[in-house]
TrEMBL record:
This is OLC1v1005178C1. PROSITE patterns: FAD_PCMH (PS51387). Keywords: Alkaloid metabolism, Disulfide bond, FAD, Flavoprotein, Glycoprotein, Signal. It comes from Oldenlandia corymbosa var. corymbosa. The keyword S-adenosyl-L-methionine does not apply. Gene3D superfamilies: 3.30.465.10, 3.40.462.20, Uridine Diphospho-n-acetylenolpyruvylglucosamine Reductase, domain 2. PANTHER family: OS08G0158400 PROTEIN. Pathway: Alkaloid biosynthesis.
Amino acid sequence: MMMKGVFIILSSVCYLFLLILPANSSLIPENFIHCLSDHQFPSNTSILSVVYATTNTSYQSILDSSVQNLRFLSSATPRPLAIITALEYSHVQTAVTCSKSNGLQIRIRSGGHDFEGLSYRSQVPFVILDLRNLKSVTIDIEDESAWVESGVTIGELCYAIAEKSPVHGFPAGSYPGVGIGGHFSGGGIGYLARKYGLAADNVIDALIVDVNGRILDKESMGGDLFWAIRGGGGGSFGVVLAWRIKLVKVPEVVTAFKLSRTSEQGAVDLLHKWQYVQPKLNEKITIMAALNKLGAGFSSLFIGRVEELLEMMEEEFPELQLRKEDCTEMNWIESVLFLSGYPGGHTIEILKNRAYNPFRAHLKLKTNLIHQPIPYEAFQGMRNWSTGVDFSSIYFQPYGGIMERISESETPFPHRKVQYEILYLMGWMEDGKDGKSSSEKYIHQLRELYELMTPYVPNNPRSAYVNSRDLDLGTNGVFGTTTYSKAKNDWGSRYFKNNFRKLAIIKGKVDPTNFFYHEQSIPPLFDTHDEL
């Protein structure tokens, strides 16, 4: 109870500070600058050389460069007092220490792909700690492991692995531009998950800067914190500097395909059938599906040769009518590019180009996790909705395979018995003349679809994936005012089920003053009274 009292007092002091300093203020507290300048660094690289205030000519370009959701490039989006592009770990330690001592909130940005922009915006005075320069990948093929810094993208990681070995890979997501810092923190699912699990399932060590500015590894941080950072969502427990991952074995040749089917070709029938077929398939194959106004699409990675794939599909899913000419044999790194969605004509070198983003747009996403097949009318309803809406896509991400054999409590990611995930995505390129009308229109349309699906999806709770954040589910209040119970009921149990309580207890131990805070960060839980 004493710790809880200290937390309340510190929260009140910080809140008073926030009332004094408006969120859009361009004034950096002088004491904050003095704190930064007082620290010495082994490399003699002053942290001030990588601090970009609003008056710096590079400030806006650095801020905008990693804003992947164009909805948050609006002038109405609160801007940070400063951006710190750390070059070394000691810069991160100093940024944490000085932000904490000066009552500034810190937002931690890896790739900037958080759908709600929580890594680079806040309603209270804040600084961005940008990890873009922490981009080292060290591969140990003999040990079949790698150390990967949090500023590395999925594409860069995959490319680095392939440079060292043609028979090793890693089960990360399918979009190469995503930063691994946030990706690993929330779980990380992709085409290899049914065979090897989530990205977070394959993390075997990490380096984190805690609330006291200390660098801790797996041993020194303890089992609870190491458990929490592998799927508990980013920005709640500290700043993860680097991750040690175990590499997985892949054959020299894999097979991939992409198919599209129109309504006249039975798109809805195939999608309805897909949900029965995919869970029974060998874990060596993943077939993702998509639906939009043009029809249905199917994209697949099979860890093996085309002849084996065709035989399997003829037996399990003949309705798809997969032909040999639809399939391409390639090596694993080529499949990463092929399945990325990047336009054709690129070589695998594009995976290293973090500045290349063909999908940058105004975005809003919502998700559902499906445990049992849903009725045909649900697919027909999605199809009918999509025909009248521009810029929408509905994606179906299969789970199953090894995922079903991992305990729900193994990591914070609890959705192990899920058959597939539905992602409802709106992406549009321009706002209306008033800067708001288009966003409001498209977001409203997406919410209508979400409501349309209510009768067909599990609703106790209506689960979601934390790496597809949705602030519609609920948000933490002003610093320190959200109760554990409210967060659990709004969004905590949706993302984490029964693991949410353990996450909150760990948060209370490692960050009792709730310094690492955002609109859906884990709240600290100190005793059972906080649950009321």
